[in-house]
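Running this now, will post back.
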Amino acid sequence: MILICDDDLTVQTSLTLVLKRAGYEVATASNPQETVDFVRHTCPQLILMDMNYSNTTTGEEGLELLAKVRIFCPAVPVILITAWGSINLAVQGIRAGAFDFITKPWNNLALLKTIQTAIQLQESEEKETDGKETERTDRFEKIIGKSALLQQILNTISRISRTNAPVLITGESGTGKELIAEAIHENSNRQGKPFVKVNLGGISQSLFESEMFGHKQGAFTDARHDRTGRFELADKGTIFLDEIGELDMVCQVKLLRVLQDQTFEPLGESRPRQVDTRIICATNKNLPEMVAQGKFREDLFYRINLITIQMPALRERLEDIPLLVDHFTQKQAKQNNLSPIEISQEAYGYLKKLPYHGNIRELKNLVERTILISGKKIITDADFKKQYIEVPSSQPVSGNTILSLERVEKEMIQKAVELYGCNHSKIATALGLTRQTLYRRLEKYDIKLPE
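Update: finished.
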């Protein structure tokens, strides 16, 4: 059952019609008191909640109602309803524990997808909590490694891949963010549909709309032919927006609009086009810090990071280096028709000691370069030493890996708490943890959630 909380009868009627056609059972409440009375005895699957119930537009009534609802139904996802010009209110609501927001006038398809995603994620979490997860049958052939950090990420992918939830993949350059995006797509219901990659760092502001949304012939001076944009190419599939931290503020607004409504207009065309695309973004930038500095829109940040996957640096998963080296060695031998190549134990020991500021990409280049230049069937540590080129680090690296990992873990939890407040579900999902694991981490690091 979905509960609609709105004092506008037209909105109630419209939402009820859309939801019933989609097969949902619906209940309605016209004011905060009716809403509280309802959740006292019944917890619905999801709540659609307006932010204002009087002549004021401050949103304080909605925030107060959200807090009361979470007391009685803390696990029920709440989607806020607000006007496009009041998105800041929705951002405050998400900080207070709401799942997501929609703006008036809403797009029915986008609304139903958001509702479906919220319910799927909630059901997935409940299954995991109850220990009812089925045996994994996921496809992760391209992802090499058995470390605990990597397995945690694969478990997260297993839980969220079959939903439509937007995913933000963070981590240093060369950690394999694109492979994770491909794995999410290949394990989703969109597998077999287009997987469109876009490097936003390589698109100028002047070309952004044409590249992303397409254009009609004659839309501008050099538009001699119609062009299909990346979003349209990704229809029914997944679009991977790499280096999203490089996007300037003007383009961020244009991107936010298509993520909000799942509609876009090619240049030179006034009729909006509908698109059904899952959004996966990646960055090596610190987006929360950029939001605080005014360099990245906060509403866009919340729109893209419903699920956050933090990729570990290679120096944090040293046990995976032999597996990666073997994989790169066999691949190189096959591509160049070489005889089987063996890596000595001393070589593995040497490779585990390197700092890897370029992460997996740096290791791959070192292995391939050494194999091709040495021409040997047995590669030793001396061979790797000759070919190793140290890349200067842009980030400080701790010499004590265990302390570094604990410090990073604590800082990530603290950042998640700052972003999502008292929303346990959102904090746990963003960190790729179960609620039980999150509780243990909060106790371990003595982190208190806001009241």
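Confidence is low (pLDDT under 50) at residues 395-403. More later if anyone needs it.
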